[in-house]
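Researcher: First entry.
Model:
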Amino acid sequence: MAEYAAALEAFKRVTALAIEHHAALDTAARLMHAHAWVGGGATAFTTDLAGHRTRLQSVLSAAMRALGDVVVRHGGPNLTIPAMTTAPTGANAPAGTFRGIDPHAMTMLVSALDHAGHALESAGARLASDLTAHGLSAQPGHTLGQVAGWAVESGRDLRQRLSRIQLSVPWSALPAGLAAYDLFGAHAPSSGQVRQLLNRVAAGDASAVRALLAVQEGGQDPSLAARVNAWWHALKEDQQLTALAGFGNLNGLPAAIRDQANRHWLGAEKARLTAELESFDHPADLGRWEKIANQLRRLELIEQELQPRPGYPKPLLLAFDLTGNGRLIISWGDPDTADITVTNVSGLTSGLDAAQGDLERARALWRQAAVTGGGKSIASITWLGYDAPQIDPGLFDPAKSVAFQGAAAKGGAALASFTDGLRASHHPSGTARSVVIGHSYGSLTSGHAATLRPGRLADDLILLGSPGVGVNHASELGLDPGHVWVGEAGGDPVAALGSFGADPGDAAFGARRFPVGREVYTAAHSSYWDADSASLRNMGRLINGEFDQLTSPPPRDDEPQLLMPEIDPALTSKLNR
């Protein structure tokens, strides 16, 4: 009878202990549920936390069952074992392209882990004592001790990391990528190649920069830019890396750092090529001479476009490359602090040699959005970040031709990586927005990028004069179809093609058409940025999120037109007399 009474008392003590401590990790789990979207090490930590919660609750249940069996062996009744499983929930992280996490929530997480760890350490010792007193294994108590050790150590590591981050990051919220790959760095996937390359870059290895850029170009690692950003913030201030060739082309670095590095590289390349041209002593090798001279012309074009312009923000050189068709990415306005970031993607014949027109379009959009933006800061980016199809012998190469999707697929991967970088380096914001505008073949490139980053490429996607985006319905682009916008100028021959999937302008595609207007057949495809045009005004409204303030263009001609409407009204008037 005494053994039964002792076993029953032990069962009651362990049951009370289990009820008190089975939810010890639930507060931490709720906090992580609210911020689980940050990915990387945070996702791994969430999984680890869930595993320790399961172990905690399982061993408490096992301990109660074991003591309940002892009670039965001594003549007692079957005892009810209380349920130990819980399902902690919490508010999901807020939506938004440039969202961040609240350091206060992470401080609460550290406190929750610390409190749980010390409480479970004592509980484990008491549990082991009650179990061994009745000839049972002390393993459940030891397991509680292991869970306690994990909680204490994790809290200590997070506290140290959070303190260091807050010393170097001035914002009130932490960037999502920084949280994923620095705050939760102890749990981040190893990703050996990227980590090794970043270590080599930190040591000043320019070949590692080139290797990282190759990974970036492939677009298959959506976490790369966030890792680069977290790595940058963790570097010591005395490490001078901006002089490395190509360093400023790395997505995820702050825009100001990219601009500084790329301007330095541009100057170094110009000096190198100038010296090479001046010392050129192979008169028979005219091809080599012309190549050097052409690269110098390209550098001078970039220098010219980087000159400040009255009424516009300082241009930032986010990337350039002289090889192939050339690459050039310039932002009018700082994309790291902008309330709205617009990325403009061009198509056929675009490239470094013909960049002036694309840059002017980006400036026109900046100007138009600023007029109606109500004081919002705008960054308008010319993104010439891929080898767009050209009217040259490449027309017969499926990998390069405008008639195929090969160039768009490669460009879409590069564009996806670039927008990863915009998110990673942007100061955390719950209200800032991202817009991508794809024109002509550039809309197909944007479509490929959207499918690679469903729900993360942009808040709004605008397709201009699109021959198709590679899908049959707007919902396949990973955005709410209500935020996929289509502009088709009357008379635009490219918009009528529908060559790559369904025609975005058809109602069945599911996107929203916005008023653009009509233009003559030969000018329609490039008319979307015309000064004071309905299309430019409406794009400004879309950029600012003023979706209910779109306006229709005035009618081109009140007289009946017997001929095709895309013919110039003045000519139509003459022919109708």
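Researcher: Second entry.
Model:
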Amino acid sequence: MTAELVRGQNHTLPQTRLEIRVSAGSPVVAGATLGDERGTVRGAERIAHPASHRVPGLEVSRQAAADHRLAVDLDALPAEVHRVTVVLALPVGAGRPVSFGAVAAPFVAVTGLDGTEIATFTLTGLDTESAVSALELYRRQGAWKVRAVGQGYAAGLAGLFADQGVAEAAETAAAIQEAVASGLARSVTPPPRTTEGERVRHPAGPAAAGAQAPAPPVPEAQPAEPLGDPASARTEAPGGGPIDYAHPRRQTSAPPPPPPTAPPAAPGQPARPVAGDATGWSMDERLYNQIWGMFEDLARAVAAYRSAVDFAESRMDQELDRALSDPRNRIGGAGDRAREAARAKRDELTGRAREALERDLAQLAAESAVVEPALPAAYAGWDNPVWHAYRVPMEIPMALRLGDLRLGEAPDLRIPLLVRLPLERGIWIDSGRTASEAAASTTGDQLRGLAVETAVTLAARLLAVYPAGEFSVHVVDPAGSAAGQLSPLVGSGVLAGPPAAGAEGVASVLAHLTRRVDLVQMAIRAGAADALPPDLDTGEHLLIVNDFPHGFDDRAVTQLRYLADEGPSVGVHLLMVADREDARAYGPVLDPLWRSLLRITPVADDHLADPWVGHAWTYEPLRTPQGSRVLEQVLALVAEARRGGRR
């Protein structure tokens, strides 16, 4: 039976290999400190946090998130550790809550590896605190117990660490928040959660059976957000029609479960993969939720495998240390037998983990083979036949595919990278050289050209998935260096105007879009939609900026940051094609800009992190097939539909 703890209450732990689950209403930082008998933490190396997510016997998430799984092996803790304190903190940054009193009360659960709850604790009564000691696992007379703490700190992590005796507490807290900010900048934003509906998941294999820091059992799915968004910006267009930046198909109730589309599998056999077997109001929504479920499944399956391998290596080292601590065993047959036994156990654990991973990968590969051909155009690659039957849509889809993601353990299994529409954050296509193998074999000029081509194909996809006339693309190319790559957009006539060149062109486009953001924001705040100028285009706008910072003065840089921060909420989105090294002269003034954008690359690069366990995923951009004219054909249909709408 689960023990529902209140502040100060304790409960005996029946096992030493545990999982601590954290659920909060908004992203929080989760970590843990290792203290001695008095609770004193002897140095920053005894703190598990996003910048140092693994210490002996403990592993935490690498980034801020609304849900966390912390893996604990109490037997693997150093002998001098008597107390493990689970710590929660709010990430700092503009627009983020500054105290736990402004968010839903966090919930913490201690569970076994099979997910069975041992003890739970809801952290109520918090107010101005921005960091809190949630609970602690402590050793008493050879047994381990859990105690609900709930001690908050208005001074944040610095105050919490100082209370636990950490030297340089403020510096350690600042380093953690910096690591969190960097992690949020490179993390793929997960889909919002609903309270109902689960992805159809398959039983996990015993991959983590020997893991020191086991990946958690596959949790509930995270399908589309609760349908209905009262916080969305809404007003009325001059003609009386609504300016609605919420997704048009969001409703106010939970979606129905998927209809049964395939007979159940025979007992003992894996479930047959079916396209669209997630919850949703439409097939597009079910496919969207299913793809995110596959993404999470692969992340956690690989986490289980990696944790099991790490545990096997750690266990072998510990067994060898114990066996060879006696000098008599260091030479001769006894030492050799100890080494062979330790390595055999290591190989057995690793083999079991690999078998479980292979089963999970085979199931996901079979599911991918079924899902990929069923994808609509917005989710499909350019080589999918669905593009050859393309017609301009009447409404926007839920999401757009930006590329593919893969992990080293499954190089042939690609997960589509989907982002919600309308875009909630801008995109930065990195035209500079990175450490990836693909970038190393590509010249700087080639990278810049590929970056612009990636921007063109992305803009074409956005134009293709919006109804005619409801999406406009503006291009800023100050030096005219991308004329060749931009020719598909220019030649088809789908741009709002010719690419802007020179400082004057940059200033004109930025002034036009800044004015639009200002006017719509004022209309929303004042409830004066009828005051909007009749010539104001209330559709979505995309600004492509090439070769930044060439042609940008201080005023233009300020306007660009303003568009990146304020534009998405009122339908103005930013697509940067730039090398960050070229903008170093501006110093830290541009850091908020870079961090507000989703960074992608024109070649394969392992820089994106998933929102669950923080793996570094290899991103691959979408390319049109060699010799194919699908891009030109799609843009021609878009241009024809736009001309027809203006008649």
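Model: Note on the second entry: DSSP finds eleven helices and 23 strands in the chain.
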